[in-house]
């Protein structure tokens, strides 16, 4: 067998970039033995390359501050874009594509917003785009959906796909501490960004479920189609009560298909502790899929961190290198379809679900009756009710309900009415249940 | 895009064969939309085809009792072998390969015994072999190891990969019933074969871990290299005691690498309930992998059954169809390597582990001291000891120990000595722990 050499340029030498270079250099021989292909990191582009220093850099021939240098280097056939963001990263990707180079990226924000433009351009220039690392870190969920489960109609997707949120919720649950305290500690430890908005408000999760849904349902689904609610307002009171019901609160990305309608949301969600997803703790991610032929499957692994993410990046680099080496670029279906399906996006509130409700009410006679009456009148059927006997201030008590399946639209009407009662002293808490 | 048609023949129309035809016909349009390729089931070969009757058969042009018919049909490019067994199935696969046809199979026994011969022949004739369905039913574990984790050195593999054994152990544990009773019921329900030897004695599991290990460690590993112990002798007493320690007993396939040495075994194994594998119940399968870059990952799904297995078969058919359609047959690395690694196989007994020990002893003064003395003398250090106060016959009591990590070789010496004591009235129970 002829020994092929494929040259790669890594753009962005931060956490994932440097881990990717480490993977490709340290495990160069592993990949060569498995594939017969030598993958060489020929260039690293980074604005601060002058200040970087590690044992891998001396092995790399070209170190530059400008990506323009590598676009004109015809010996480089794969560009690994790991700078993140949606402005300069987009420019680099499009220019690389137009220069005839295949691109590997972990940039979920860019793909969730601009996938159509980028993928159409890639098809036009017959180059491949690898984006396995954009969702689920080291978990090969993109390829599973695109290739392995290709013969399935996907019925639903449940994902814990943001390590920061899962880390915070896991610690709130195990340590019994409030959100702000855990967030501060997570920031100090590097598990949450200084500006954590993207993570804790669910935006990053929305980007990722938009990408997974696009593949699963064969249609460009912009992330604006995703109903998003983050974990900022999660109260420790609810986490405590939920755990008494042998349940766990997770930030779940959900895509559910009913015939040719799909609802996609990111919301704090209650799941039963018997569900494997309840055991996915800390920075680990997991995606549970149901396909009409394969049934229920689950894929679990590290959702972030340089090493795990670099495994996915390197997997894409190798897949593209194999295609390049055999002269067979498969650029036709970057998102896993050749023509779009006829699915339409509907609101998650139109799909029935059980709900957990908590009302903080004045400790007066008849309150339970007033509230249950409003629920019943609006078609909300309760299967579990709990009036807690504790009252922090001696005047208000929590009333907790779990409902049978009901459309969110109907429930919202009842909640609005209850929230306006003078006996209800706080904004009602409504959390979807998937049990 | 040109619409390609790829013709497929399915050989063997049993549970998996008929489910595969159903998948390819029912989801024909799903696959076409995703890939641009029309996959047509052109022929079904089955010895009893005259007696088969379902709504799919009328859609299939050729129905035959002899596979010879389809080998000479040049319009058929993929043969799906689903008859099982290692004699006629081998003949069909080799003849199909020599006729220039790619082959998809779920036949783990054949591959575990004859993979070198079959894969070398396939390379020679430049045809592809898909065998995703051979391990883990619908779980895409073969492709994960071959492609997605290609940049990793795999450190270890832990698999629950036999649905029958997992079903029996799950029910023994949840219902508190002995092995024979659950096995009989499992047979009545179709979850265990009339002759269950292959499953319950661990042979099927050994076939599967041999295949996974061959890919993971880049070397043809015959299944004879696997230390095998089944679940036939599992006593309900132990399942009960183990659960009191918040642990679960599973039939685990294990491959562990230490430098360039790999130990592979199939044994009843105790795992902590915190381990996700402990929550894999019934006929579900799961494979946990550790790669040096990706870290710990887990892949979970239905390990058996026609529908789930057909998802993996169809995934392979589509992957080969895409390769055929683009004129790019990747026949170089059927087992995921171009040259063999230098790993050597060692006994699992040479790799230290914790162990659970149970001795049934005469209820006499000094027994505990005699036994712990023998353990200590042989370098076996105990971290937990439990003398149960119940005695079924008033004369014997169980002594239970959990050991610190110790080589099985050393432990075996101690166990032999203890087993020969007159105060020990039953064969000692020794179960490996992975916690």
Structure description:
The structure is a homodimer of 435-residue chains. Chain A folds into 3 domains: 4-138 and 306-325, 3-Layer(aba) Sandwich (Rossmann fold), CATH 3.40.50; 141-303 and 343-348, Dihydrodipicolinate Reductase, domain 2; 352-434, ACT domain (Alpha-Beta Plaits, 2-Layer Sandwich), CATH 3.30.70.260. Helix content of chain A is 35%, strand content 26%. The N and C termini of chain A lie far apart (53 Å). In chain A, helix 5 packs parallel to helix 10. The mean pLDDT of chain A is 94. In chain A, a hairpin with a 3-residue loop joins strand 11 and strand 12. The first copy, chain A, has helices at residues 15-26, 28-35, 68-71, 88-98, 108-124, 141-148, 163-175, 179-189, 197-200, 203-216, 236-244, 306-325, 367-377, 408-419, and strands at 4-11, 37-45, 62-64, 76-81, 102-105, 129-130, 154-160, 227-228, 247-258, 261-272, 284-291, 295-302, 344-346, 354-362, 382-387, 396-403, 429-434. With 435 residues, the first copy, chain A, is α/β, with parallel strands linked by helices. Chain A is elongated. The relative contact order of chain A is 0.13. In chain A, strands 7, 8, 9, 10, 11, 12, 13, 14, 15, 16 and 17 form an 11-stranded mixed sheet that branches. The interface between A and B is large, with 64 and 64 residues. Strand 12 of chain A pairs antiparallel with strand 12 of chain B.
């Amino acid at each position: 067998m002829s020994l092929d050499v494929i040259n790669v340029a890594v753009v962005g030498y931060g956490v994932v970039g440097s881990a990717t270079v480490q993977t490709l250099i340290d495990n160069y021989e592993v990949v060569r033995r498995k594939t017969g292909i030598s993958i060489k990191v020929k260039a690293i582009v980074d604005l601060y390359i002058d200040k970087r220093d590690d044992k891998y850099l001396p092995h790399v021939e070209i170190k530059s501050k400008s990506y323009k240098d590598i676009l004109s280097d015809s010996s480089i056939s794969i560009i690994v874009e790991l700078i993140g963001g949606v402005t300069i990263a987009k420019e680099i990707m499009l220019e690389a594509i137009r220069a005839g180079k295949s691109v590997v990226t972990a940039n979920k924000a860019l793909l969730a917003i601009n996938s159509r433009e980028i993928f159409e351009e890639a098809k036009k220039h017959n180059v491949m785009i690898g984006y396995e690392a954009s969702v689920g870190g080291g978990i090969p969920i993109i390829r599973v959906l695109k290739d392995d489960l290709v013969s399935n109609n996907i019925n639903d997707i449940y994902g814990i796909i943001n390590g920061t949120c899962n880390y915070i919720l896991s610690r709130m649950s195990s340590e019994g501490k409030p959100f702000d305290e855990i967030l501060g500690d997570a920031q100090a430890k590097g598990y949450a960004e200084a500006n954590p908005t993207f993570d804790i408000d669910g935006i990053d999760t929305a980007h990722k479920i938009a990408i997974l849904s696009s593949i699963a349902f064969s249609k460009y689904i912009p992330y604006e189609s995703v109903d998003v609610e983050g974990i900022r307002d999660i109260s420790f009171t609810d986490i405590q009560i939920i755990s008494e019901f042998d349940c766990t609160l997770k930030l779940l990305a959900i895509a559910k298909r009913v015939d040719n309608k799909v609802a996609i949301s990111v919301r704090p969600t209650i799941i039963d502790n018997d569900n494997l997803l309840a055991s996915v703790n800390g920075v680990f991610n997991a995606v549970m899929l149901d396909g009409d032929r394969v049934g229920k499957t689950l894929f679990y692994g590290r959702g972030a961190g340089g090493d795990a993410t670099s495994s996915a990046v390197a997997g894409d680099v190798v897949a593209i290198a194999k295609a390049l080496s055999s002269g067979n670029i498969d650029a036709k279906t970057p998102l896993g379809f050749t023509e779009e399906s006829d699915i339409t996006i509907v609101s998650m509130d139109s799909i029935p679900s059980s709900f957990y409700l908590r009302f903080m009410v004045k400790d007066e006679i008849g309150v339970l009756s007033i509230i249950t009456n409003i629920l019943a009148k609006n078609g909300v059927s309760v299967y579990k009710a709990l009036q807690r006997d504790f009252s922090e201030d001696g005047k208000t008590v929590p009333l907790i309900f779990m409902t049978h399946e009901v459309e969110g639209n109907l429930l919202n009407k009842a909640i609005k009415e209850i929230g306006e009662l003078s006996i209800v002293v706080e904004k009602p808490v409504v959390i979807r249940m998937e049990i």
